[in-house]
Specification:
Layout (H helix, E strand, L loop, with lengths): L1 H17 L16 E3 L5 H10 L3 E3 L5 H17 L6 H9 L13 H11 L1 H25 L1 H46 L6 H43 L1 H15 L4 H36 L4 H23 L1 H60 L4 H11 L6 H16 L1 H27 L7 H44 L12 E4 L6 E3 L15 H15 L13 H13 L1
Parallel strand pairs: 1-2
Antiparallel strand pairs: 3-4
Length: 583
């Protein structure tokens, strides 16, 4: 008896090492990545593995004592000689994969504990849910009654994370430029010469591109500041010093235009004189002291300025590391998403993030390119027609053009007022040119560059810009359109899923000129002008169900139908009316 058991143990040991060679048990060899199912005790999971198309391993235990001997052997093997074999395979056989091994006698400690936890899983879920509800209630209570401290803590956290936020924004803005140069220029050059880029070469090219991009941005910023600040300062100085001449120019222009209308000319002269006096008083008594006060307060704001530039500098340094190893960081983020959410939810989250990136990057990059082209065209045309301060006006028009819909008006109004003070006729030419330029941008250039990147109607664009500008100012107005596009996509997909659940079409054309949908045929009933009874509207959800049940009950048992009084005849009506007249 003992000899047969020892023989069986040795036989099973050699079987596990070398497969079924010389062994009469119909089993297969252990691959490294196969799941394991126990045929003697868990037929259900084995069938589930087969239906899923997953490889499995069948091993039938013969004796109770062989299990104990095998477990002791595995314990010794793990402690002293695990480097000789594949630990993954042995651990999967010992502990199972996804708790799929269930022994008949439950002698394995790990499997027994798993089974015990599985028995009380619903209680664990209930306890965790209750804990989360209580924690959320406490957090909500604290946020509701400690708003000042929460706001202070939030601002402190933002101050700490400001360099990281600046780095993320800077890296997100620069990344499309580097991707374009790498994919469209560098890769084509190597492909044209029949060479492939090595990893070291790619890293070197990436570092050079980051350096050149930073240098180009610094030169562009320096050129913009060096050009605009003197231009702006000189324009303000000229306006203040020559304001009386500008007012006379406007008055002479109004006199020439209204020469044939003396009454209107007199009224216009009065308003121009009053406006010029008030504006001159504001420029001399308010504007210049405000500028002096602002310059004096700059020393007091030195700490804030130093903090701002420190955050920008740290953000630029962190952005270099982000751009240099962005593929590695993105891969780690994807790995974390799959580890936390699993395969299906991980794919959904990554796909949603890719869509958000597509909307934001497509809109922002397209808007920047469009604004640069509009600014260049504006500078070229204003220089040709002799508009004053052509460079300053063009930069203002180009920068404000980044804001959708309202941007051209926000930039054109101050430029128009500035030109109007110097030359009213040039202001008229500039107004006509800006209107034509915005029509060209909105109907031709913008659609060519942006395409259908947002798919948002003009009405929603206006609403989103107003809301974004009200909450976050200029930054909110810039990002309002892509955020609105993402929200519209979420709502549209949710509505389509609900319509699909109710077996209704999601095509907008189905709901045009429709009065309602027939609940039996699910066809659209065309709109007909009719009077709606007030007794049929504004009811609770259970009203229609009660009405249907009542109708069904009355059809089945007409005896129990509710009493309806009979309508009086014509003779009874006449007699009632005569009695009332006599009284």
């Amino acid at each position: 008896m003992l000899q047969s058991r020892i023989h069986g143990a040795v036989k099973n040991f050699f079987y596990l090492l070398w497969g079924s060679r010389g062994c009469n048990i119909p089993v297969v060899r252990l691959p490294r990545k196969n799941r394991i199912a126990h045929t003697a005790s868990d037929r259900v999971r084995l069938e589930a593995f087969r239906m899923q198309g997953i490889d499995y391993h069948i091993y039938a235990w013969r004796h109770f004592y062989l299990q104990i001997c095998y477990l002791l052997f595995l314990n010794l093997l793990f402690q002293y000689s695990s480097f000789l074999f594949f630990p993954q395979v042995w651990l999967r056989l010992y502990f199972g994969d996804c708790m799929c091994i269930i022994e008949v006698n439950k002698i394995r400690k790990g499997i027994y504990i798993f089974m015990k936890l599985d028995r009380y899983r619903k209680y664990v879920r209930t306890g965790v849910t209750a804990f989360l509800v209580l924690a959320a209630s406490m957090i909500f209570y604290y946020l509701l009654f400690h708003q000042t401290s929460v706001r202070t803590a939030f601002h402190n956290v933002l101050d700490i994370l400001s360099p990281l936020i600046a780095a993320l924004i800077l890296a997100y803005v620069i990344s499309p430029i580097i991707n374009f140069i790498e994919q469209r220029i560098i890769a084509r050059l190597f492909a044209r010469h029949g060479k492939t880029q090595s990893v070291r070469c790619k890293k070197l090219v990436r570092a050079l591109l980051i350096l050149l991009t930073y240098v180009a941005m610094l030169f562009a910023l320096y050129g913009l500041i060096a050009t605009l600040i003197p231009e702006l300062f000189s324009s303000i100085t000229n306006i203040v010093s020559n304001f009386s001449n500008y007012a006379n120019n406007i008055q002479d222009f109004a006199t020439k235009v209204l020469a044939n209308y003396p009454e209107m000319q007199q009224t216009a002269d009065q308003y121009i004189s009053m406006f010029s006096a008030k504006l001159s008083n504001w420029l001399t008594n308010d504007l210049m002291p405000m500028l002096r006060t602002f310059l004096l307060n700059l020393s007091g704001q030195l700490v804030n300025m130093v903090t701002f530039f420190k955050n920008i500098l740290l953000g630029a340094i962190v952005a270099i590391y982000m751009l240099y190893n962005k593929e590695s960081y993105i891969a780690k983020l994807k790995k974390a998403v799959y580890a936390l959410l699993g395969l299906d939810h991980g794919n959904a989250v990554i796909r949603d993030c890719q869509y958000v990136n597509q909307e934001f990057s497509g809109f922002l990059v397209g808007k920047v390119i469009d604004s640069i082209i509009i600014g260049a065209i504006c500078y070229l045309v204003t220089s040709l027609i002799g508009t004053p301060y052509a460079l300053l006006v063009s930069v203002i028009i180009g920068v404000t053009n980044i804001i959708p819909f309202f941007g051209p008006f926000l930039g054109a109004v101050p430029c128009l007022l500035l030109i109007l003070l110097i030359d009213p006729l040039q202001a008229l030419y500039f107004l006509i040119f800006v209107v034509l330029l915005q029509q060209f941008d909105g109907n031709f250039l913008g659609p060519k560059i942006l395409g259908e990147t947002t798919g948002v109607s003009s009405f929603l664009i206006i609403i989103s810009i107003l809301i974004g500008g009200g909450f976050w100012g200029v930054f909110g107005m810039i990002i309002a359109v892509p955020v609105c596009a993402i929200i519209c996509t979420v709502c549209r997909n949710f509505a389509n899923r609900r319509l699909e659940k109710h077996h209704l079409p999601d095509d907008d054309a189905f709901y045009f000129h429709m009065d309602h949908i027939d609940p039996e045929t699910r066809q659209a009933i065309p709109y007909q002008k009719k009077k709606i009874d007030e007794a049929e509207v504004f009811h609770f959800p259970g009203y229609r169900l009660r009405k249907a049940l009542t109708k069904l009950a009355t059809e089945e048992s007409p005896v129990d139908a509710p009493y309806t009084p009979a309508k009086p005849s014509t003779e009874e009506k006449n007699s009632d009316s005569s009695d009332s007249d006599q009284k």
